[in-house]
Fold:
Amino acid sequence: MTRWRVLLVLALGRSDCPGNDKADFEACQTDIFLGGSIRDETPQTVAPSQQPGRASAACMDWPGCAPLGLFGDCCPSNGGAMLGCCSAGRRLALLQMERKGVTIDDTTLQYCARRIPGEWPNAEAPLTSLRLFQTWNTQWPVEGRKASWQGLVDFVRTHGVKVLVGTPVTCVLADDEQTWAWTKEFLGMVGPENIMGLAIGNELELLADHADEKCIEELWEGGRLWKTFNQRVSEFDEMGFSHIPVTSVFTAAILSGNPFMDVPGKALVNTFLRQAMWKYGARYAFTFNVYPYFDPNLRMNAGSRDNCSESLKRATCWQGGGIS
Structure:
């Protein structure tokens, strides 16, 4: 590690970089402070770039930086690896942060809900929304439930955060009823002003991959999902949330149908969505979990074994031709 600390100082202290190359500036987004080679247990020796002397290493002095939203000092090595790229004050361009949120993982919910960051990392932008897959799980210790909830409620109210609250639909009805009872208790603590929506079920089109046929048939052909959805919404409304959107979250796998998956014995998603739209209209929100990294067509750049910039560009594009 001592060797790397020295190299880091050398890299930051140089004034002959960055090179006037778009790739150099883009590399700043994956510098060592965000998980690069300085944390490697067996680092390789990489010398700083030996470019001709330049007047400044500040991104603001180079035409390629501003369009990429990069600030600070940037110094790529001649091999493309970052020794110390961009100062601590470096900021990427922030776009529509008020429309973005985070998902709270199970560990955070159970043990440190009070310590959720109020701002996005490396950005002077407040966190405005978050998602809970579930408010509690029947396999978790019940002793810490209310304390964890109170920590989350305090955070949400302090920062004015909106919460998308999830409640599971599974093949174990007793567990579903218990988690729904907990969900209602949590909703009562938060109040309507901090609830973005209620998500009933998550990725149910994939349940057939690991559940028995009887459960799947009962859920879809037997109408249990639709019955459960209506019961949950009715009780949700009785609590004073009748103006809050409702949804069930699916993956992009449902797009395999026309327009959505409707496969007996697997998932009748199109049937469910038609029913939901007919009954709830604009109150029903279409919600997707999008996972570009599962796309088998995403590969390394042609002729490269370590560069996937073209696939990354496609995976993060919301315009025509993208898959996000």
